[in-house]
Amino acid sequence: MSNKKEIEIFNFESSINYDYESIRNCAEHGCRYEKACRCVKIEDFTINYVDMTKLCGLVYELLRPKFDLTPAEERDRRLCEVLYGGQYIDEYCIDRIARYYKLYNVGLWKENTSNSYYGEEFNGIFLEVLVYKDFITTCEEVISYCNLEDKLRFLLKMEYGVVLDNLKDAEFELISINISDIDFDRMNQEHIKNIKNENLEYYSSDMYMMPRGIVRKQGDKYLIIDGYHRILNAGDGIFKAFCKK
């Protein structure tokens, strides 16, 4: 099972881009007489941005199932991962949950410092406690599901509050699709215009490598069920999406 103690104190520093100044005034504090600097102060701490890709990888490593399994049980677990997509799909789910909780918002993160014998020390960067607990609990639940359909329906319920009737018993497959195969003519053109006016650099084709949404086949084209923002920022090439069978 996941290591709860490790999760509770986890430091996300490696997924955060940040800066700070280490200020010293050794002459005023007499450090040279002690032959050791004990006056360091951390000032002007700034969180620049959250690397969501790194963050999702860290959370997956924390939460992925860690059981003491027999060889037969391990074989079944690996087969399950092959059937639903394993780490790639789980990190996609974590990314969707992280976006739902707006973990890209630098205001949710806080640096931790403490005093030591040699001045102030930087101990890491942690998520606001209440948001963190909800986020981790939600990620644990989605990772616990053993098939793609349950994972996707969980995400849809989380984001929209309801799963459409025609998706409740649907099966899905991960496909590669060209942006030209999307039937944009049947989409709300005002909605498309509004999306294109948003700053969605995170979803650009060279930054976002996850599946971009859920589609369904309609004739020789595909209609978007979920993921307008991500699909509209896929660029001109091929991207991955979940297709309703």
Structural notes for this entry:
- With 245 residues, this protein is of the alpha+beta class.
- The chain has a domain at 171-245.
- Helix content is 39%, strand content 24%.
- The chain is built from ten helices and eight strands.
- A hairpin with a 2-residue loop joins strand 3 (109-116) and strand 4.
- Helix 4 packs across helix 6 (87-100) and helix 6 packs antiparallel against helix 7.
- The radius of gyration is 23 Å and the shape is elongated.
Task: Explain briefly what this protein structure is.
The protein is α+β, with helices and mostly antiparallel strands. The protein has helices spanning 4-8, 26-29, 31-34, 52-63, 71-84, 87-100, 129-144, 148-160, 189-196, 228-232; strands spanning 16-23, 41-50, 109-116, 119-127, 172-178, 214-218, 221-226, 238-244.
Distance between the amino and carboxyl termini: 33 Å
Q: Strand arrangement, largest sheet? A: 5-8-6-7
- List how many beta strands DSSP finds: 8
Order of helices and strands: HEHHEHHHEEHHEHEEHE
Shape: elongated
Radius of gyration (Å): 23 Å
The helix tally amounts to 10
Amount of beta strand: 15-25%
Summing up helix and strand content along with how strands pair, one would put the structural category as alpha+beta
Largest sheet: 4 strands, mixed
Question: What is the oligomer described by this structure?
Answer: single chain
